[in-house]
Amino acid sequence: MRVQVIPFGxxxxxxxxxxxxxxxxxxxxxxxxxxVLLERLRDTLPPGAAAEILGSIAVSVNAEYAQAAHILHDxxxxxxxxxxxxxxxxxxxxxDESREDESILVALTRDRIDAESTVTGAKSGEDGxxxxxxxxxxxxxxxxxxxxxxxxxxxxxxxxxxxxxGLMARExxxxxxVTMLHRLGRLEIGETSVLxxxxxxxxxxxxxxxxxxxxxxxxxxxxxxxxxxxxGAVWAPGEPFPKEIAIESGEGPHET
Length: 256
Prior knowledge:
The protein is α+β, with helices and mostly antiparallel strands. It has helices at residues 10-14, 34-44, 50-54, 115-122, 155-173, 203-220, and strands at 2-7, 24-27, 58-61, 64-66, 77-81, 93-95, 104-109, 129-136, 140-141, 144-153, 177-183, 185-187, 192-200, 223-229, 232-235. The strands form three sheets. Strands 2-1-5-3-4 form a five-stranded mixed β-sheet. The longest helix has 19 residues, at 155-173. The two termini are 35 Å apart.
């Protein structure tokens, strides 16, 4: 059988995928698992590099997280996902069109995010509080001067995960409305990279939901950040995947 493999972030660099041909085709025996695919990839990597490259990754099959024992089928799309930085939407501006109401709004965009109008649009007469997380691009990281950032995502899967987080936040914290917007592509200093707006009748629920959303997004939503400094570039080290998602342990980012 043949499966399509899509590496992201630093894995794309290591495995030689390009922006024009990001999908790698791989032949596997019928009934092969994710673990078998990873072993095949391990065999193609330079000696000593496999643990570093494949360490701490997660794997998706058809835009859903999958474990090593997951059985693959002909035509499956397998994503190789390094720890994220921090859904079919492969357009310049991807909006979750599947929502049944306006209580959960998620989007990926390559346009500047207008935080002020987004916050205004989230408010309703029944709300007693609106809590906002506005993540912006700063001019330095770990003592190095930042020139710009580049974000990429597994878009179909990212939108799906973002919407699921919004639904979970609404149920868990009892908030009325959740908006999550994330930029893709090139971002300059001072621009908004991620905007989360939570509207609720009570401030405590809004604060707790907003904090939980950004923390969980940074761990589970497949979006990656490449930082370009005055003296080089690096894929940002992501937070470790939760144990139920990660395949195995390993190391961090790689200079380019």
